[in-house]
Design brief:
Layout (H helix, E strand, L loop, with lengths): L2 H5 L1 E3 L11 E7 L2 H11 L4 H4 L1 H5 L10 H14 L7 E9 L8 E12 L4 E9 L5 E10 L6 E3 L11 H9 L8 E6 L4 H12 L3 E7 L1 H11 L7 E4 L3 H13 L5 E4 L4 H8 L13 E7 L7 E4 L9 H17 L6 E5 L10 H14 L7 E6 L1 H5 L1 H6 L12 E3 L3 H14 L3 E7 L5 E2 L7 H21 L1
Helix pairs in contact: 7-16, 9-10
């Protein structure tokens, strides 16, 4: 009988079919998601199981599985295999000999020890050993064995995707490991999330904040939130326009190495940034990147431009692409794959986005854009799904594994980024590129967490600039 056929149904063994000495075996390897799922299901969030930092200081020096995870494997054998459906648990004894750690492969052996004909009870010896043959769990189980034969189709269980937002947030902050905090001006942090974002970034060792805005309002807000303004420099500005002007001037004068938008409108801040006389322009076109950590995508995903350039020209897109490639390389993506998005994957003279995509790819071939691998036009599905690309017969080094998505205009980019954030639980960071200093630019609706993650990207950029000087 084929393995596929065996796995398609569950069949029990009745009391009469089981003999003393009969054995059933199950093997499982402990994965991080097994620990997470068990903790979620049981509510057991003992730090020995879910907190690697704490676990390193415990007696075992690493994360260990919940003891009952291994015990559950015994129950799995009894309930699905030996005896199987119709079995009723009566009693269980367990002795835990050693911990199970990540990557351990546990083999469960269930052996029929005694049978009692008067009530159809069976006592099983239960043994769990690891890959080294060392006993992990031992004990006995007493069950009421089924008297009737049962054979049922195996029920296909739904797949689980664990969205560990904290781990993804920590991963983003991990880009700054070993980097010193940078001075950053924060323009008008006068709502809870913008102020908390600046202070969270301070507490994470990312920035030394200069808070620019109505000082009384900022202090009052901090008191309401129960947060401290220690290590923060405050510069009084009566309104948001003045706060933007002062915050930008601090960056232009070199007093800070980065800038963050607070609770003011994007236009208010960017008007000061793009001012030819007093702003932060460079030779490059200013653009914006959303760095997204999407649970269902295997690598960080950059979307550009979704916040600054409304309807960029081909010339604008050259700088938009180059800015994004340069940022990707700062984040250790050595040769980022750049997908130039359009509604279709073929060049159509009636669709400007497809013409721009083709031109950008040719410009990259001729060295006018450097550091990345470009392909386009690509529809969104072809850019992020290898299966979709193969189905459409697209052969490309970029298709299905893009690091950077270049959108045709601000509307498509903004909708794409917000769909990923709100419908796919993406963790995002927003940063302005092509300016003298990095600018953290997020939506006013974004959380303090998003703002702090964005600060981490600004820190990486600021240190990269230091190395170039």
């Amino acid at each position: 009988m084929s393995q596929a056929k065996i796995l398609s149904f569950i069949e029990n063994r009745t009391y009469d079919e089981i003999k003393v000495g009969d054995v059933a075996v199950l093997t499982r390897t402990l994965r991080p998601e097994d620990i997470q799922l068990y903790a979620i299901m049981s509510g057991d969030v003992n730090p020995a199981h879910v907190d690697p930092e704490y676990a390193r200081s415990s007696m075992y020096r690493e994360v260990i599985a919940h003891g009952m995870w291994g015990a559950a494997l015994i129950s799995t054998v009894l309930g699905t295999q030996f005896p199987g459906p119709g079995t009723v648990y009566v009693d269980q004894t367990l002795h835990f000999s050693r911990p199970v750690t990540l990557g351990d492969t546990i083999t469960v052996t269930i052996t029929c020890q005694k049978k009692f004909d008067h009530n159809r009870h069976i006592i099983f010896d239960c043994l769990c050993v690891n890959q080294d043959g060392l006993k992990v769990i031992g004990g006995t189980a007493e069950v009421l064995a089924p008297s009737e034969k049962i054979k049922r189709a195996r029920i296909a269980m739904p797949e689980f995707t664990i969205s560990d937002r904290q781990a993804r947030y920590d991963h983003l902050l991990g880009f700054t490991k070993g980097l010193a905090a940078i001075p950053m001006s924060v323009a008008h942090p006068c709502d809870p999330e913008s102020l908390k974002g600046a202070l969270m970034a301070r507490d994470a060792g990312l920035i030394v904040p200069t808070l620019v805005g109505p000082e009384d309002k900022i202090r009052s807000l901090a008191e309401q939130l129960g947060v401290s303004l220690h290590d923060c420099r405050l510069i009084n500005a009566q309104h948001s326009h003045a706060a933007a002007e002062i915050a930008v001037s601090l960056a232009r004068e070199g007093q800070v190495e980065a800038l963050m938008k607070g609770s003011l409108h994007t236009d208010e801040l960017m008007t000061e940034v793009i001012d030819k006389a007093t702003g932060l322009r460079t030779a490059r076109r200013i653009s914006h990147v959303f760095l997204m950590d999407v649970p269902t995508y295997p690598r960080p995903l950059m979307i550009t431009d979704a916040a600054v350039n409304v309807l960029p020209s081909l010339e604008d897109k050259v700088d938009i692409v180059q800015n994004a490639i340069d940022l990707a390389q700062m984040l250790a993506i050595v040769e980022p794959k750049v997908a130039i998005l359009a509604a279709v994957e073929t060049v159509n003279p009636k669709m400007r986005a497809t013409l721009d995509a083709a031109a950008l790819c040719k410009m990259a071939e001729r060295g006018q854009i450097t550091g990345g691998i470009l392909d386009g036009p690509l529809a969104f599905d072809n850019a992020v799904s290898i299966i979709a690309a193969k189905t459409k017969g697209i052969r490309s080094a970029v298709a299905g594994q893009a690091d950077i998505l270049v959108v045709p205009d601000i509307e498509s980019g903004n909708m794409l980024a917000k769909q990923l954030e709100y419908l796919a639980d993406a963790l995002s960071a927003g940063i302005v590129l092509g300016t003298r200093v990095p600018i953290v630019l997020t939506s006013r609706a974004d959380t303090a967490e998003t703002r702090t993650a964005s600060c981490a990207i600004a820190v990486v950029m600021a240190h990269a600039k230091r190395r170039q000087v």
